[in-house]
Target: Phosphoheptose isomerase
Amino acid sequence: MSPNESKSSAIGVTTGDLDRYFTFLRHVLVNAAASRPADESLDYATAVSEAMQLARATHDAGRKIIFIGNGGSAAIASHMATDYSKNGGLRAMAMNDGATLTCLSNDLGYENVFAKQIEMHANEGDLLIAISSSGRSESITKAVRMAREKGGAVITLSGFAPGNPLRALGDLNFYVASDQYGYVEIAHLAICHAILDFSCGLVPPSLS
Model:
């Protein structure tokens, strides 16, 4: 047996492993914290309701919702921009075009790839949804500050350390208490989906 075959045969999980994994995932989801600026605590359901209202009001005013994120968060941004547009009927976009990102990072530095796009394309009254697992990505925090300069509203989603910089920058801030990318990214996707699904009239089924 080759070393690779030996490694492969040792890969696996138990039912208990899966149970603990998904139990903790549920824990971080239902215990995500919501806040306003200056770390003012906000009831979770109230924050989701206000996010729903803000997204709808942005569209109804003829403005747009802009999603940004890096890596896995960029995938969430693209996914949500598509779903908010197609399923929610909300004007939404993600600033993830590959040629644009490489051009701006090459010429201006990666920390400016979203801020520059917002400077060029955002309008007063737009809504920026800024997603960062660590909450420390300079490309994201600089974009939020630019959105503020342009007169936009901001929702943030972050994780890892509770004192991360992004968490203090939004009108509404959702924070997931985990330092594991998988948990934080899944929770961010679920929160964004909950905002959309409830705004579309979803009634969650009861478990028998």
